[in-house]
Amino acid sequence: MDYVSTRNKKERVTASQAVLQGLSRDGGLFVPTQLPKLDKTLKELSEMTYPEVAYEVMKLYLTDYTEEELKNCIKNAYDDKFDTEEIAPLVFADSAYYLELFHGKTIAFKDMALSILPHLMITAAKKNGVKNEIVILTATSGDTGKAALAGFADVKGTKIIVFYPKDGVSDIQKQQMVTQAGDNTHVVGIDGNFDQAQTGVKKMFNDPDLAKEMEAHGFQFSSANSINIGRLVPQVVYYVYAYTKLLKEERIKDGEQINVTVPTGNFGNILAAYYAKQMGLPIDRLICASNENKVLYDFFGNGVYDKNREFKLTNSPSMDILISSNLERLIYRIAGEDDEKNAAFMKALSESGVYEITPEMKDKLSDFYGNFADEAETGAEIRRVYEDTGYVLDTHTAVASAVYKKYREETGDDKACVIASTASPFKFTRAVMKAIGKDDAAKSDLDLTEDLSTIANVPIPKAITEIKTAPVRHTTICEVDAMPDAVRSFLGI
Ligand SMILES: *Cc1c(COP(=O)(O)O)cnc(C)c1O
């Protein structure tokens, strides 16, 4: 199976090349030439561990990796970096199954993919005869940077350089990044905002002179951002795992349909659920939950994607997004895999910030249901679920939970539902404690985690206890214009 660009089907690469390259040269996203079907029965899969299911799913997408290569990547990713052998436990609370995707190093779901991407990448480099060391450049507004750092730390053959706006991330996020261990990790605060950091990184990626200079010293850039197919494919795994776990525990019958609710920003996580459905996993509705930045809710309602609106800062910051990059893969598919049509929509998006799909395309969206929860509804949901069940949701998961409640009230559909639980409440302690009515303004965010631990009856995760004592290792601050020099200095060129 090959991968083609959503904007030009003639751009055709192997799976490993797609992982290495990240984005297609024409700006399009790589998609598989056809979506594979599961080749094991649900019953067979239900007897497997997480790494075994990971292999059964990923082998169908990453077809040019050998069995040994892929199993090796999986083994290196899903090990005791996770604080539970289950990797992604399923917890029944209230009236849904919360799929906890936050048991990795940075206690958010991005660890699920970023713990395997580095291994997929160095394997891809070997397979394609790339001798250069891979240098990952990332601009971050907080979460992705830390998850990427944790994933690439001490992975041989790679270096990672993360730029963050020095006054634009939370104290805990900053502390997490500047204490990052690993001889190959570099973290730089920039005198500027996230957009400037992002633009600076893009400029370096597209600078042919810098690329030549890098090549001469045995380096080449790559990207770990969420449009890389090497991040999408590992996310399909946990939907299959969740279903088969429900089956094994006899919560559902073989073949019975379930619903899935996903708190959505860049549309990567829910797209993975859509791919799982296309592979034959019995999923009925894909419930797309947005916060007050509800571009996707409007899109599913009227077929118009319109990013021209006020950007809102919410308590679920990882969903504060107006351009959901991974939606392009869905647009391409419902356009009948028509690359020219998709390219025209994306051109309209970049030129005017808006496009409207055709009625035929809209008909193909019936798998999806979109809704949103505002800040008050999200807080109320955290409190309600806590008071009813004792289970504490983080702010992102609470958006999903509140939207699922609306869905049930609107449709009466009470199929078993898996809610993707994308972050630990300890990552957003202040907002969570406020919602429950147990905030203490006199305490620091870190101290407040002790109170949360008591009321939730959950130990404080290692990701939090570690940063309290870890030494600061990264102190570099630079001007936006000096970003390339910071890179040169780290690489010693
Ligand atoms: C990234 C993120 C999301 C959004 O996921 P997408 O794949 O971008 O839609 C939701 N919740 C948390 C905690 C995240 O970190």
Give the CA-based shape: globular
Major sheet size, sense and barrel closure: 6 strands, mixed
How would you write the strand order of the largest sheet? 4-5-15-10-11-14
Structural class of the helices, strands and pairings?
alpha/beta
Ends distance: 39 Å
Describe the SSE topology:
Blueprint (H helix, E strand, L loop, with lengths): L2 E3 L2 E6 L1 H7 L8 E3 L9 H5 L3 H9 L8 H11 L12 E4 L2 E5 L9 H5 L2 H11 L5 E7 L3 H10 L5 E8 L5 H8 L6 E7 L2 H12 L2 H9 L2 E4 L6 H20 L9 E6 L4 H11 L4 E8 L4 H8 L1 E3 L20 H8 L4 H14 L1 E3 L2 H5 L4 E5 L2 H15 L5 H17 L5 E5 L7 H8 L8 H12 L5 H8 L7 E3 L3 H9 L2
Parallel strand pairs: 5-15, 6-7, 6-9, 7-8, 8-16, 10-11, 10-15, 11-14
Antiparallel strand pairs: 1-2, 1-3, 4-5, 12-13
Helix pairs in contact: 1-6, 3-4, 3-11, 11-12, 17-18, 17-19
